Amino acid sequence: MATIYLILVIILFILAISDLIVGVSNDAVNFLNSAVGAKAATFKVIIFVAALGVLVGATFSSGMMEVARKGIFHPELFYFDEIMILFLAVMITDVILLDTFNTFGMPTSTTVSIVFELLGAAVAIAIYKIYTDPDALHLYQYINSAKAMAIISGILLSVVIAFSCGVIAQYFSRLLFSFDYEKRIKRYGWIWGGFGIMAITYFMLIKGAKGSSFMSGDLKKSIIDNTGMILLVAFIGWSFILLLLNRLFKVNILKVLVLVGTFALAMAFSGNDLVNFIGVPLAGYNSYQIYVDAGSSGGDQLLMDGLAGKVPTPTLLLLLAGIIMVITLY
After folding, report:
1. Rounded to whole angstroms, how far apart are CA atoms 272 and 212?
2. Are the C-beta atoms of residues 282 and 275 closer than 8 Å to each other?
3. 101: exposed, middle or buried (C-beta count within 10 Å: 0-12, 13-18, 19+)?
4. pTM of the predicted model, to two decimals?
5. 213 pLDDT exceeds 80?
């Protein structure tokens, strides 16, 4: 039986590679369109900046991997063989779904896809358990309802927040630069750019540090404790750099801001959405490790309590996933 489960793990990782390729093809426009539309740089430079952001962001996604393991259902209530079937069903569905949407040129959210695929698969297996096992629990007990609702609410709320923040940022940008553009960009552009990059630094470094796989706990704590000082230094430092670039080399400050934003968007995409592509295969791999360590002869006798705990994701695997995404971009 162990050989069969090992083959399933290998299939999961093959599907993960397919999912990475299809997923990046689906989402690349989200972090490339602003820079390409604004002609902030040549296409090759924009792709390079985005690729760098994707690679860095991959190492910041470790904390998100728990969503696939225990964010939607309670793994301790499922046996190993049930978990492996669940993960395999989710990955096959995800690849087919994303590829279908890409083929017909329709946008879709990879996060929404993976969340509801996990939810649907968990509900299906829970219903099967209820009908075949007289000692089974109620359906709602198998599902991590609180966490699942929090994730779904977060997805819906993010649409409202993104729209509101976009309107506010656009309004002030227009108010500041629309009239007498050339004089105002020289007078206020470096301050606006410094503020913008400071805000980007906050989301990239301060918020992103929590999910980093290579930072030590002490370093993360130090970053969080010194948030105010880091942001102040970022604002002053970037404002001064942008002022020099504009005065000495006549560099368009807004183009620099767009490129930095492209890097941050690519990094956020990789850090947040990588779980949608490799979270399930990694959870399957973790399950197989638990199965091997337990020395069980049958997967139908081993409950997946180990998935309920905190399992660190190897940085090397995250980097490999990042490299695949970078290759797909090119």
Report:
1. 11
2. no
3. middle
4. 0.85
5. no
